[in-house]
Amino acid sequence: MTTTRRDFLAAAAATAGAAMTPDLNHAHQHGHDEHQAVPSDPALRVKALESLLVEKGLVDRAALDVLVDAYEHKIGPRNGARVVARAWSDPAYKQRLLKDADAAIAEMGYGGLQGEHMVVVENSPKVHNLVVCTLCSCYPWPVLGLPPVWYKSAPYRSRAVIDPRGVLREFGLELAEDVEVRVWDSTAELRYLVLPERSEGTEGMSEEALEALVTRDSMVGVAKVSASKAGNAA
Amino acid sequence: MNGVHDMGGMHGMGPIVEDKNEPVFHQEWEGRIFAMNRAMGAWRKWNLDASRHSKEVIPPAEYLRMSYYERWVAGLLKLIVQSGLTTRAEIESGAPVSGSVKAVPALTADKAVALVEKGVPASRSVNVAARFQVGQRVRARNMHPVGHTRLPRYARGKFGTIDRDHGVFVFPDTNAHFLGEKPQHVYSVRFAARELWGEQAAPQDSVYLDLWDDYLEPA
């Protein structure tokens, strides 16, 4: 089947139009699950849009490549893990991080888009912090990269504020009743990073070894750091 | 606006599904639309708040059906037509209108590097008096604007305490509609979970929201 660029852009324009008529056929095929394979038509729509914008001189393909490469290959949760490992290893750094997160994170060479105004919140045996954006998908890009699908999904956005303990249970984390849960809803331009508790059994470990223990999920607050979970990609 | 994007506290959205080996972009087009949003944003015809609002106005059934980056496609198409960067006819034909002058891209590769590294601060160095002090008890206003707002429904009318003053920031409710930046203080406001959700919540738990002066009144 061949479909022209014109057809795909026209379909996209209809989607973006003021009326935005629901595409029932499409809805029937793909349901409500954000995790299902994306149908091929967005791929073609986006390709057609890119061609149009390049032809009009509005977009430089090389700039698009830079942006994709930055978030695909350069900026991700290993940055945040380095910040956390440094905070665990250097008490003075930790104090600076909690007091002025922007400056302390910049010391490690990180900062920029969607991390212009950072706040670091510290977990302890008595306090557990959890980060969400109920209104969209705000997330601290320079230290964690782009957010995973679950963070941007309706189930997490809807329940993190009303039932944080239930959400944590779903991630396999059962908190004691006397722990205080603090949920941070990123409603403004402040971006939150959780400083997880340093786990037992990590005494004497090097900063590099500690860094390998720190997971993305622990820095969002949906997991704890375990001394035995080194290499866990999440 | 009281849209479906304002999800805090809703029920029935299903279980949280975590993909342990998730790629940054699931398909190539997701990365391209992500990058195009930034490249087109560099024309400064709209701002971050307007960009967020462009997705909020997607009708609720569509919003829930779409994947995350499908919303970005819909939002960007709306913005480029509204701003006049492209015409609806060009979107429909897929080609520049004949005789139009080719522009020089606003975002080049080197500017893209700088954008990623430096970001776009939303704070403003202007002297605006704070209306509230740390430790002060406040009430989130019971307001229901039809336009863009960052005061979620679940906090409206609820009492909280100013935990921290973050300084002065652009105000989304006006900025999203090109009615000015109206810079004002943003505070971290602590709401007891029981104030928001009643007896079902643990007594010591809380939710912190970052709220602008205009969202708050003295309690």
Describe the structure.
The complex is a heterodimer of chains A (234) and B (219). Chain A has 234 residues and is mainly alpha-helical. Chain A folds into two domains: 5-59, no CATH class; 75-220, Nitrile hydratase alpha /Thiocyanate hydrolase gamma (Nitrile Hydratase, Chain A). In chain A, 47% of the residues lie in helices and 9% in strands. Chain A is built from 13 helices and four strands. Chain A has helices spanning 5-16, 24-30, 40-55, 61-74, 77-89, 91-99, 101-107, 141-144, 149-152, 154-159, 164-170, 207-213, 216-220, and strands at 118-122, 127-132, 180-185, 191-195. In chain A, the strands form two sheets. A two-stranded parallel ribbon of chain A has the order 1-4. A two-stranded parallel ribbon of chain A has the order 2-3. Chain B is an alpha+beta fold and 219 residues long. Chain B is built from eight helices and five strands; from the N terminus they run ααααααββαβαββ. In chain B, strands 4-3-2-1-5 form a five-stranded antiparallel β-sheet. In chain B, α1 (28-41) packs parallel to α4 (68-82). Chain B is globular, with a radius of gyration of 20 Å. Chain B starts with 27 loop residues before the first helix and ends with a strand. The chains are: A mainly alpha (234), B alpha+beta (219). Chains A and B meet through α1, α2, α3, α4 and α9 of A and α1, α3, α4, α5 and α6 of B. β3 of chain A pairs parallel with β4 (206-212) of chain B, so a sheet runs across the interface.
